[in-house]
Every structure is written in structure tokens, then in C-alpha cells.
Amino acid sequence: MQDFIWDKDADGIVTVTMDMQGQSANTMNARFEPGMRAICDRLEAEPGLTGVVFASAKSTFFAGGDLHDILATETADEQSFAFIEANKAVYRRLEKLPVPVVAAINGAALGGGYELCLASNRRIVLNSPKAVVGLPEVTLGLLPGAGGVVRLTALLGLEKALPYLLEGKQVQPADALAAGMVDEIVETADQLIPAAKAWIRANPTAHVQPWDQKGFRYPGGDTLAPKNRQIIQASSAMLYQKTRGLLPAPEKILDVAVNSMRMNFNAALRMETRRFIGLMASKEAKAAISTFFFGMQAIRSGKVRPEGAPWKATSAAVLGAGMMGSGIAHAQAARGIQTLLKDTDLANAERGKAHSEKLCAGAIKRGRMDEARRDALLGQITPATENAAPGTIDIVIEAVFEDIDLKEKVIAETWPMLTPEGIYGSNTSTLPISILAEACPDPTRFIGLHFFSPVDRMKVVEIIMGAKTSQDTLRKAYDYVQQIGYLPIVVNDSRGFFTSRVFGTFMDEGLQLLVDGMAPAAIERAAWLAGMPVGPLQVFDEVSLILGQKVRKTHAALDQRLGVDSGFGRHNTATVAVTDPMIAMGRGGRQYGGGFYDYDSEGKRTLWPGLAQFARGNAEIGIKDAVDRILYRQAIETLRCLDEGVLNTEIEANLGGIMAIGFPAHTGGAIQFIRGEGIDHFATRARQLAELYGDRFAVPDRTYDLLRGKSDMAA
Amino acid sequence: MAATAYIYDAIRTPRSKGKGDGTLHEVKPINLVTTLLAEMQQRHDLDTARVDDVMLGCVAPVMEQGAVLPKIALQKAGWDESVPGAQVNRFCASGLDTFNTAAAKVASGWEDLVCAGGFESMSRVPMGADGGPFAEDPETAIVTGFVPQGIGADLIATLEGWSRDDVDAFALESQKRAAHARESGWFDRSVVPVRDENGLVILAKDDFIKSDTDMQKLGALKPSFAGPGAMGFDAVALAKYPQVERINHVHTPGNSSGIVDGASLVMVGSEQAGKDIGLDPRGRVVSIALTATEPTIMLTGPGPASLKALAKAGLTIDDIDLVEINEAFASVALRLQRDLDVPDEKLNVVGGAIAMGHPLGATGGCLVSTMLDELERRRLKRALICMCVGGGMGIASIIERL
């Protein structure tokens, strides 16, 4: 058994079939370079060689670099440089062979795999939706380091190459052909190698890459071409507007692409290596790889799912056809779950279904759905005012108003619809699941399913375990959430759960800055610079100040009813100090005509000049402190959730924060942010912030022990 | 200081629209310079062998403006072969920088007679033709936070609360003053007609001035930097100015400096050099200054540079009779006026670059000639000349009529 299978035919064409042993896909691991080097040695020495075909024995062509290796890279040192240079050297030798080299792409060729294709003289791809090509490195905080930036720029020209390099799009065969990323498409796998050989026979001298030919000109012109100059001048700022300077990978990709055109090809490849090893060692790459690759993979593969047989819902009922209810109904229908959409008023229920019609119309307009699929989807939703027959529904989700009495009544009334195995979910964002569970006959089958608005875009569900919720119910809920294509984050019942609690600290910190005397525009800009999708003042207006106040009142009432002090929002002092008077002044938020902002008739917002009255301090708060306050406040609250057992794993903390409340993705999530800063550095800075700004930043030292060593939570 | 630097003369070409339909477009950049070299020689029957150096500013010194054009122009104009030449680039300050350096050389006593000034044929070698890492190396642009100057100009207006009407009103006044000065013949001493090889006049007077403009016409123009701002440059600038909610894009082609072709030439020398060539000095250089300020807003350098020059001379703004701030953008002039508390009647008394245009490398020399003429005509003593400069630099010169 060997990694590279050599087969020479009567015409002198050698087919090298990659079949890396002990793994399901070919990767650029430690065995790759020595293996390829041996192949190059043999090809260069082979008498009567007329051409080379690269093929794969796996279902994919080649998967690219080994992310475990990259994650283990600590510094950009000589050794990393030599390792990457060696990997690139075999590609360079391949394209310098005196015979044509063809890549026969039978399946996905991504990253290092597509870079092998770029080092070939011709790329022939199988017409299969799985045979995607592309350079997705940027999505992992990296750049294509095996010549991908330099060669794609030379192949397509700057303007056409940049989007593929900066966005990391995976491209289907037909699109790849149109873009010039591949040269030919064949219809069946059997035709791949014959087509490759036929091309070699027809083009026996086509072995010099365009960029190695005398008089080579970049498609679309060099960096002095007027259009390219315009692109170059604008591109840095366009990129900054998107990344806010938080993502080094696209910045370096842009720099390599542009500057590669100004230098010798081999020098450009070396420059690409230098940028690549720097990124390998960066905290941003580690964050992206840990969270978005390994973390996502862990959740998708069920690493944090309770054990047991897979469960599938075939029928569902959603109670309350408001924004949330209709969104949930749509998500279910899209995955083929028969959904009863129940409201007290049939017109409301029908409006809920109309929401789906609107979403479908949009999808059709964008070419993402056809009419048959729309009809099938809409056919799944039945608006109603009455319960379904008893014992017929696998999952009931209540999404009625956040009123405990109403919810208790609805839960009792609708429970009988459930099949004996069915589960009952509540979409509450505030009310304790353990209390609501008491309204049903079997609290073990009751669970929180907290969706986020807008449901069709926020693909994450916070699953809340009540005190009596069974593991069996959790397993079913977990499978249901994945069945509808959402990411499950499991938390234990606690006031504000995880997401609302941390989000509350974000909004409050914005107001703390306001009270401290920071200019409102600067607060919003600090949040932008921190990487938050929307500033705290704007978010408060969207959520509405009044809703925030209602939630606080609800918790106070619950405390009274239960005779406890939950301490919910204990640190959110600025929220009370600012929003209560604003509500009294009639500034309840956007839907109430204005809040932190004034809105003109076209919805254009301008900060309300009256905000100055809330400044108690006159502190000159630097933008760095403000950015840190916004990030640390949320990270600390997330850490508290882990410490208190509200959250079970770091991965869920990281992904949940990013997907549900917009914690900046470049950090890899709130806990990964602490790791990226360095736990000790974070602790020191938090202590400093606590001294400067208050106890809400105070964290007991032992809490950090959670993150030190190999904790179970690291999933 | 060892010696006083005297100004013996300052001349310039007319300025004309720096596009293909501008009157001077047909004139090669080198011929703008040889026109002035020939005039300077003939006007004073100058023994050019006495000149120690000729330094001329140019901001896009490539292609037709490249390869040390000043030295080649000296040869072409028939100046003595002993005269060296250099091209100098300090962005928009280039022309004034050569003037200041000439003064410093003379004051040091190391040289006796030096010519300064500059040239720029923006119609033939467009602004930015020299590329450079400032805007065209992504790594550099990202690290330094590059934004086009107009974003900085709009940011100044936003920070100071100046509306579109405020900047347009300033522009209108510039046009009125420039038109009046031209009609009155106030520029005639310094402006040298550009002729063809047969002696036929191609352009005798500034023809960029729009004497028929009004607030309505100015108000109809579209903001130049709203587009680039939305593309991402506003975000870059606001990262440094977080207290600003959004940038108010007020600058248009109507209230920004005009893109034009033109050249200037100034002769600076010691007292003895003047005696030797038989010329009386028109003025003297009192002090000079260079500085640099926050580079993203880029255009707030003139105030600090002026204060530095005043301090060097032991003067205050009250000792200055006329102030000339290059009108790169209306907000730049308004900001200088506010920084130094300059009354309207002392500021840019014959209009400025909004009306007449800003031939980048040449402008500094143009401003020296304008101020000398006005000090003489009004029988005033001192003028302060200052300019905003790329990269946040600022430059100033104080001159005195004799």
C-alpha cells in the first residue's frame, strides 16, 4: 500500500494516483512532501515520459493542509518557513517538468488540493456538485500558502482572482469553467483520465505555465493598468470597512496578490510563504480553526449530544403566529416537518403562513428555490385556531407572549396534542423553564427552545434544560434542532439563560460608557471596532428600551413570587439609570418613535442630542479602553456562565455567543477570546478594568482555573 | 543667521484647466518651465552662470515630468551649463519647499543665488501617476490608514460644523476676488504668457477663474467624496475620529482647488549677489517652517506650521498684514482662519486655488509671487504663506516687502 500510485501507459504518460494511507482524504500532512518529492525525482528521471496525470483514489481529489499541524504552530520560525517552502517546491518542480501535467479532478479540490491543480498545465473536472474547487483558507484565518495567491492572480488577473481569494468561495464545476479556474468538464468519472491523456497527446509541448512564458502579461493588465490601480487604491479601504482591521488573513492575501504582480515569480512565492507562516502562528487563525472548523465539527458530529438513538420529528405544532412562531414554522416546513401553526385568531395564523410565502418569493427571486419546492414547503404549514387531534404531534413549541400566566394556560391546553414520545418546547427568552414545566403533566418532556430573531437568518437555538427535563428529551430536542438545520447550544436553566444574560451586559456596557461621559458616537464606533455587528445604543433601540424594562419587571415579579433574589442583571446599573428616565421621557426605542436615536421619515438615524444629560462623569475614555470594556464585559459574563454551570462546554460558549448575539467572530468566541489574549493577560486586564470601572469586571482567580489545563469543558 | 535671503523676482505662467480641453494641455511640461527660465533671464538680462542651483517642485515627477526635468529644462532654455538643477517632491508643498530651501541655502551662506518654484501639467501627467505605497501598497495603506485628502477635508468641515453653504460661500468669495484681481491687472507683473515656437500666444492670462459662478451653481454640484467615503474610506477615517457620527461630505469641484496646468519660478539670493547682477530685491524671507500633524485628516498642518514660523521670527499673527493659505479645499482655509484668527480682509485677498487652480508642484511659487505683488500694490509689510500637505504635513513662509 502506498500514498502515490504510479502507472505508466504505452504512450509514456504517467498517472500518479494519490491514495494517502490511513486517512479518508488526501491532505498536505507530514508524509505529503517527502512522497511528492520522490514522485518528482522519479518523473524528472523517467525516460520516455510524455505527460503526467494527477488523480485521486479517494472520493475527494485533495483536501488541503493539515489543520492540526497549523493549530500546533506557535511561532513563525525558520522551521515553519522551510517546511512550507519545501511543500511549494514540489509544486514548482511539477510545473517545470518538460511534459504537460494535468489534474484530473474527481471530487473536491480545495486549498492545497486546488493549489496542486493550479501548478498543473490543465485542470479537468468531473461534472459533479461535489467536485468543488477553491481556496477557502481565508475562512480559517489563513492564506493559500502553496502558491495559491500568486498562481490564481497570474491565472485570472487581479480583479477576477481577488473575490475567490478574499471570500474563499467553493466553486461548482460550471462556474469554475466560466471563471477560468478549470479548463474542461467531463460528465463521468470514467472519462476523466482518458480526457487528461487525450489533451496531453494533442498538446505534447504545452508544458510551460503562462507565467513562465516569455512576455507573460497578467490578464487584465499589470498593477499599472488604470483599472487595476483603481482597484488597488480602493481595495484596502473596502476591506477595512468589512473586516475593521480585525482579520489579518484577507489583508495579507490582498497584499500578496497585488505585490506578486510587481516581482519575479519565485520571489513572489517566497513572500507568500512569509505571510503564510505569520498567519499560521496568529491568534486569529487559531480562533477560526478552533471554533469554526473543529468546534463546528464537534457539534455537528454529536460530540456534545446526549447518547441514544437518533430522533426525527415528522409533525409539529407552533403556538402563536407572531414573528417568532411564523419563523419557526417556516424553518420546520423547509425541512419537511408537517406544521400546525396555531393562533387564537385565524387571520393571524394565516398571516404567519404568509411570512413563509414572502420568504419563498425572495428565495425564488434569488434563484435559490423553484416553484415546486415552494409549493411543497407551503403545503407543510396548516394555519389553525384549534388543537390537532390528541396524541398526533411529535413536537409542540409555544411562542406566545412572554406572560407567565398566559404561557401556563397555553401549555396545559395544548399538551394533549403530543404523542406519547413527543416533547414540548418553549420559545421563552426570559421565563425559567423549570417554572413553566410545572404547567404540564410531565416536566421531564418539557424543554426550552430559544430561537433568535429573525429566525430565518439566525441559525442557532439555545436549548434550555429545566430542572426536571430528561436526557431523553434533550436528545430529541438536540436532533430536532439539527433536523431543521440549526446549531444547538445546550444550557441549564438560569435567569436570562446564557445568551440574554451576556447580551444584556453588552447593552449595559454601552450605557456605562455613556454615563462615564463618552461621546455616544464614539461608543457606537468602539463597538464597531470591537467587531460587534451593531452598536449598543442602536441595538437598544431595536430591541426597545421598554422590552428591556419589561424583562426586568418580570424577573422582579418572579423573585417576589418565589421569595428569592435571583440577582438577575445585578451589574446592569447603567441600564436602569439611563433607560428608565428615557422611557419616562417617551423615548422607548425605535418602534416607539425614537430612543437613543432620532429617526426621520426614511428611517435614517441620528443620535439623540439629549443623551448628554446622562453623562455623570467627564472621563476621557480612550477608544482602546472602550473596546476592551465591551469585549471583556461579555467574556467575563460568559466565563461566569461556564463557572456556574449554565454552560457546559467552551465550544458551545464560543459558537453560541457568535451566532446568537454577535460576539465578534474574529475572536473565535468569548472563551477563545480569553485564550487568545492569554489567560494571565486577560486576568490582569480584567483586574485593571475592575479597579478603573467597577466590580462587574471582577473575576475570582479560581474561575480561570476552568480554562487552565485540560478541562472537560474544552470538548 | 549669517545672511538675509532676498527675493529678487517671482513669476509664473497663467493657469488653465488641467484636462484635455485646457488651453495649456498642448504645452509640454518642460516648455512651461523653459518659458519661465527664458523670461527670468531676459527680464533681468541675467548672467545665468551666477545661479548656484535651480530646484523645482513637481508632485508627479514621472514620464514627461520625470528624469530631473529642471536640469534638462536649463539646458533647453540655454542657461549656462554650470547651473545644476533638481526636482523636489514634498507633495503639495513642493514649490514652497524649494523656496524655503533656497532661502535656507542663501541664509547659510553656502550659496548666493538660487532659483525655486515648480511645475505641474496635470492634464498630461495626472495626479497620482507616480503611484507609490501611500495608496497602492495594500500593506502600507492598511497600516497607515490611507484615505484620499478630500475625506480629510470633509472631516474638518464636519468637526468644525461647517455646512455646504459655508464652504460654498468661501468658494464664491475666492472666485469674486480672483476675477476682480485679474480684470484689474493685478497679476500682470508676474504672469508670463505662454507662447508657441513662432511667438504666438497660447495663453496670456489665467483662464480657469469662473467669474460667473454663484451660490446656486455651486450648490448644484455633487459632493466629490461621498462615493469613496461609502466605499470604505469614511470607515477608515472614523476609526481615528470615533466621536464623529458620520462625515458630512461638503466638498465638490466647486469648493476644492482646481486641477490645472502651470509653473512658477522665484529667484532668491544674498545682498551681494543682487548687487553683482544689478538687481534690487523686492522682498526678504523672514522665516520658514515645516511640520507634520495627524495624517488621516491630513490637512490641518497649516496652522501649526504658521505658528512655528511666527515663533521663529518672534512675531504674532497681528504682525502679519496678509495671509495666503493654499485653497486645497475650502475647509482647509476656513480651519487656518479659525486656528490663527485671521480677519476676512487679510485672508487670500486676491482669491486662491479654488478660483485659479492648484498646479501641485508649482503652487508654492505662485503664492510667493501673488503675495509679493499684493504687498507692493497695497504698500504693506509682511505676508504669511502656508499650505496643507499630503501625509499631514504643513509648511509656512513669512516674507517682507522691501
TrEMBL record, chain A:
Reactions listed under catalytic activity: a (3S)-3-hydroxyacyl-CoA + NAD(+) = a 3-oxoacyl-CoA + NADH + H(+)
Cited CDD domains: crotonase-like
Matches recorded under InterPro entries: 3-OHacyl-CoA_DH_NAD-bd (IPR006176), 3HC_DH_C (IPR006108), 6-PGluconate_DH-like_C_sf (IPR008927), ClpP/crotonase-like_dom_sf (IPR029045), Enoyl-CoA_hydra/iso (IPR001753), FA_oxidation_alpha_subunit (IPR050136), NAD(P)-bd_dom_sf (IPR036291)
Gene Ontology biological process terms, A to Z: fatty acid beta-oxidation
The keyword NAD appears for this protein: yes
Pfam families to which the protein is assigned, alphabetical: 3HCDH, 3HCDH_N, ECH_1
Protein name in the entry: 3-hydroxyacyl-CoA dehydrogenase
Organism (species): Seohaeicola zhoushanensis
TrEMBL record, chain B:
Assigned keywords, A-Z: Acyltransferase, Transferase
CDD domains linked to this entry: thiolase
Active site: 92, 358, 388
Gene Ontology MF, one: acetyl-CoA C-acyltransferase activity
Gene3D superfamilies named in the record: 3.40.47.10
Keyword Transferase annotated: yes
Signal peptide span: none
Thiolase N-terminal domain boundaries: 6-271
The Thiolase C-terminal domain, residue ranges: 281-401
Taxonomy, superkingdom: Bacteria
Entry keyword Acyltransferase: yes
PANTHER family: ACETYL-COA C-ACYLTRANSFERASE, BLR7806 PROTEIN
Sequence similarity: Belongs to the thiolase-like superfamily. Thiolase family.
Official protein name in the record: Acetyl-CoA acetyltransferase
Organism: Seohaeicola zhoushanensis
